[in-house]
Design goal:
Number of helices: 11
Radius of gyration: 20 Å
Largest sheet: 2 strands, antiparallel
Strand order of the largest sheet: 1-2
Order of helices and strands: HHHHHHHEEHHHH
Structural class: mainly alpha
């Protein structure tokens, strides 16, 4: 069953990558549509976990505002809306303001604070963190650098961690990584995932056009050289970093499930625990990947 979930997860992620890669011109609208569908599904699953603990999140508000936020980022990337650090704060202000407004007009005073807290927590944890994946996809740097190359790089490193950790850990794993949180995860599997991600990072960094150019600049500035091996080294280090963050993100989602006393976040997708189970490793790692890209842009 767990192996089926790994396969289903890979198929879903591969579908997202294909949509991202082949969307051009007007068809690029399928990118925010895809992220909206996946994000709101994961958000509903998170709210379901909170409901198991007796909270009452605002499902309709969460889904509606999440879609608005995703398309806001999309329009900013297309230069249809002005950019600026101050404007980036507007969606956060609107999230708090509109959520508080809905609760006020509901008139449900007894659980007002908890409803506001879990509704905003779901938006921040799922949609805001997930939106950094969209930022990576839509990013366009100088010299016609394309964020989609970084997205492919990012996805391959994360999913290779999951796959390697599962297959190696299920066969050779002996020591539990965090038995009280996720009994199937092993130390051996975690190390295998980390090494696999590092190896693929070393192979892909010199191979993907935009990634190669940016890592070459960083290598020249930091290491004083721009060679195949120096770029591969930086790619391997990125693989290690993303693997660690992805596995920590996976463990965090397991904590939420254990807290709610459920095994899977949901069962909307055949053979899969839920959209949140697919996206968990992307949540903590995407902001770091995006920050790395912004740092590289200044090299």
């Amino acid at each position: 069953m767990l192996r089926l979930r790994i396969v289903s997860s890979c198929v879903l992620v591969a579908s997202i990558v294909l949509i991202v890669w082949f969307s051009r011109g007007w068809s690029s609208v399928f990118i925010p549509i895809g992220f909206s569908v996946l994000g709101t599904t994961a958000l509903l699953e998170f709210y379901h976990l909170m409901e198991q603990k007796g909270f009452q999140p605002m499902r309709l508000w969460g889904c509606a505002f999440s879609v608005v936020y995703v398309f806001f980022l999309y329009l900013v990337a297309l230069n249809k809306l002005p950019k600026g650090e101050e404007l980036a704060l507007i969606p956060m202000y609107l999230a708090v303001f509109t959520a508080a407004l809905v609760i006020t007009f509901r008139g449900q005073i007894d659980n007002a604070l908890s409803t506001l807290a879990v509704s905003l927590a779901g938006f921040l944890y799922i949609i805001w963190l997930l939106s950094f994946n969209l930022r990576i996809v839509l990013w366009r740097g100088v010299d016609e650098l394309d964020g989609r190359y970084f997205f492919v790089f990012f996805v391959v490193l994360l999913k290779s961690t999951d796959i390697a950790a599962y297959f190696y850990g299920s066969r050779f794993g002996r020591r539990k990584l965090a038995a009280h949180i996720s009994p199937h995860k092993t130390v051996e599997g975690a190390i295998a995932g980390l090494l696999t991600s590092a190896l693929l990072g070393a192979l892909l960094a010199p191979s993907l056009a935009s990634v190669r150019l940016f890592y070459g600049r960083l290598s020249a500035n930091v290491l004083g050289m721009d060679t195949l091996w120096s770029v591969a080294l930086l790619g391997a280090l990125t693989g290690v970093l993303l693997s660690v963050l992805g596995q920590l993100s996976d463990l965090a989602e397991s904590v939420w499930k254990r807290c709610a006393n459920v095994k899977d976040s949901a069962g909307y997708i055949p053979g899969m625990g839920g959209a949140l189970d697919v996206l968990d490793s992307f949540l903590f790692s995407a902001p770091v990947m995006y920050l790395l890209m912004k740092i590289l842009e200044r090299q």
